[in-house]
Amino acid sequence: MTAIAEQLPVAEGVTGLRLVVRRFLRNKLAVIGLAVVVAFVLFCFVGPHLYHTDQTHTALDAVNQPPSARHPLGTDAVGHDELGRLMYGGGVSLLVGLAAGALATIIGMLWGAVAGYAGGWVDAAMMRVVDAGIAIPALFVLLVISAIVSPGIWGMVAILGLVSWLVPSRLIRAETLTLKNRDYVLTLRAIGGTHTRAISRHILPNSVSTIVVAATFQIADAIMLVAYVSYLGLGVRSPQTDWGGMLSAGLTAVYSGRWWLILPPGLAVILVVCAFNAIGDGLRDAFDVRGRS
């Protein structure tokens, strides 16, 4: 009986996945966003293996050089090749964004699912914690913590994840409140299935649309937040850098006409964030059953 209850949504899920993919591919803006993300991932993680630069030691004989054949995007104030630095900094930004977005989504997913499934005073207490957290601006908390602990890459991931899980938790809770009254969940509970089994085998798998969309937007938000913090000088420490740190370092140089120090990282942040938002919009529309045809 338990096996039968668990298999009820499976056939619908297989067909629904194909429909979601088909609808996503019809969204040209979402497909372009996916292509941009893939291109930047290859650029940042594969590019450094093809385009070798020294991003650790200074080169005082090559300071602030404009774009040339040797340095396609010029060099910065300490002689680092700007194209290589764009790859290296992009790798940090994408790594932090992806990891922090995933961490925030996982925390929010578990918190929201437990709160929504439990209901009653447990739900009320857990969601008051969320409401209190949302009332405090995430950027403010991030700046304070970054000023105190001076985080590295994984420290930044942990901080971003711990300040960004609140919104996903509310989305998952709302989905759980609907799903826990579905027939297959009620059947599982009637035949003695545990609460853990109900959440892990039915609630969360059937909330995958909300989880995936929330994760996509969380990644975009995390990339933007780490750019904010690094721009203000509280991000990852030298010799590590990210796109926000490159913007901060090149801000004064732009007044001297050295546009190559600020334009490439600025465009990279804008393109990647817009691309992830486009993917999120496309996934949301693809999962929307009211628009399926």
Automatic annotation (TrEMBL):
One CC-aspect GO term: plasma membrane
Keyword Iron: no
Pfam families, A to Z: BPD_transp_1, OppC_N
Protein's membrane topology: Multi-pass membrane protein
Listed GO biological process terms: transmembrane transport
Transmembrane feature ranges: 29-51, 92-117, 211-234, 259-280
CDD domains: TM_PBP2 (cd06261)
Entry keywords, A to Z: Cell membrane, Membrane, Transmembrane, Transmembrane helix, Transport
Primary location group: membrane
Superkingdom of this protein's organism: Bacteria
Domain ABC transmembrane type-1: 90-280
Location of the protein in the cell: Cell membrane
Matching InterPro entries: BP-dependent_transpt_permease, MetI-like, MetI-like_sf, OppC_N
Family recorded in the similarity comment: Belongs to the binding-protein-dependent transport system permease family.
PANTHER family: D,D-DIPEPTIDE TRANSPORT SYSTEM PERMEASE PROTEIN DDPC-RELATED, OLIGOPEPTIDE TRANSPORT SYSTEM PERMEASE PROTEIN APPC
Protein name: Peptide ABC transporter permease
Native species: Actinocatenispora comari
